[in-house]
Amino acid sequence: MTTKYALHLTFATDQNKNVRLSISNPKEPVDATAVNNALQTIVSKNVFNFPQGRIVSALPAEQVETETTTVS
Fold first, then answer.
1. Where are the alpha helices (H) located in 1-72, listed in sequence order?
2. pLDDT band at residue 27, thresholds of 50, 70 and 90?
3. Chain segment 33-63, per-residue pLDDT in tens
4. Could you tell me what percent of the chain has a pLDDT over 70?
5. In 3-state terms, what secondary structure has residue 22?
6. CA distance linking residue 43 with residue 56, whole number of Å
7. Residue ranges making up the domain that contains 51
8. What is the distance between the alpha carbons of residues 36 and 3, in angstroms, rounded to a whole number?
9. Contact partners, residue 51, CB within 8 Å, separation at least 6
10. Domain tally for the chain?
11. In the chain, which end has fewer C-beta atoms inside a 10 angstrom radius, N or C?
12. How far apart are the first and last CA of the chain?
């Protein structure tokens, strides 16, 4: 069994769409304050340009754990 971790940063855009940035293997333990600061910096500095529109707000970040088992 293989376990993978990711940090999903989700944002709302000015076109009423959501966009997600995924960070593989984030540093453990995930520091909620650092993540929130990064989210706010991305929003305030308009760092990314997405076809879905300009980022206008951050949504809650999620730490995701995925387990994969080979069956054959």
1. 32-45
2. very high
3. 999 999 999 999 998 999 999 999 999 999 9
4. 100
5. strand
6. 6
7. 2-68
8. 25
9. none
10. 1
11. C
12. 12
